Amino acid sequence: MIDLHLIGIGTGNPDHLTRATIKAMNAADLILLPRKGDAKSDLIDLRRTICADVLTCSTRLVEFDLPIRDARAPYLEAVEDWHDAIATAWATQIATHLPDGGRLALLVWGDPSLYDSTLRIADRLRADGIALRVHVEPGITSLQVLTAAHAIPLNTLGAPVLITTGRRLREGGWPAGTDTVAVMLDGGGAFEALVPQGIDIWWGAYLGMPHQALLAGPLDRLGPQIIRTRAALRERHGWIMDIYVLRRSPATRET
């Protein structure tokens, strides 16, 4: 039996870890650290830093190469194939390093419940016959760090919030029934598909990291600046993680 602990580590800042998270990491027999290529080498460096900062026991650390999603295939088909490949990679590491069972931990950016697929990938292992018990230690999400960094509430008084992806925003426009939209997994500037007048944006990249970047203000003024800033940061670091909240001003809200 494998006890798989999916551990939310927030945005990579060790100060964001909960006591329960640290306890679970130290109780693990093995922590797997995925490598995502040179362009994102500082992502695994952050995982290494977190482990060095909080581990006080003899937990083994094993790095492995994470499969790459095929960007040429249709999105959902490519993601399904990618998740199959990741499940196979996990199974290989389990067979190699925990052949008799034990406690395995994976460090998940943000929280495993929000736009993360580790729980779905774990289901694939169980479907393949691996005896697996899944435990989740929640983490701080990038959305929480974003609103804290800008010192704003996520919702207006008594109003709903919709969390979506850049792909959905670009294809479907502003979602009906809400005046506040949080956008994750944006490949770059999906807000450009909107009529920007009357919309405010709170944007952040590398949240919680030393090179955190923040911009906020009217979308019609800040949109082009965010696009330029995002491109420059990607060029500098080789990768980018960003997120933003959009909110309609009272004058443009639906009645």
Report on this structure.
This protein has two domains: 2-137, Cobalt-precorrin-4 Transmethylase, domain 1 (3-Layer(aba) Sandwich); 142-252, Methyltransferase, Cobalt-precorrin-4 Transmethylase, Domain 2. It contains seven helices and ten strands. It has helices spanning 19-27, 41-54, 75-97, 118-127, 142-150, 166-172, 219-237; strands at residues 2-8, 30-35, 60-65, 102-108, 132-137, 162-165, 180-184, 199-205, 213-218, 242-248. With 255 residues, the chain is an alpha/beta fold. α2 (41-54) links the parallel β2 (30-35) and β3 (60-65). The strands form two sheets. It has a five-stranded parallel sheet with strand order 3-2-4-1-5, with helices on both faces. A five-stranded mixed sheet has the order 6-7-10-8-9, with helices on both faces.
What is this entry, summarized?
This protein is 36% helix and 24% strand. The chain has 255 residues and is α/β, with parallel strands linked by helices.
CATH C-level of the largest domain: Alpha Beta
Range of helix content: 25-40%
Low-confidence stretches: none
What name does the CATH topology of the largest domain carry?
Cobalt-precorrin-4 Transmethylase, domain 1
Q: Rg to the nearest angstrom? A: 20 Å
| Number of separate helices | 7
With strands numbered from the N-terminus, the spatial order across the biggest sheet is 3-2-4-1-5
What amount of the residues lies in strands? 15-25%
| Total domain units | 2
**How would you describe the shape?**
globular
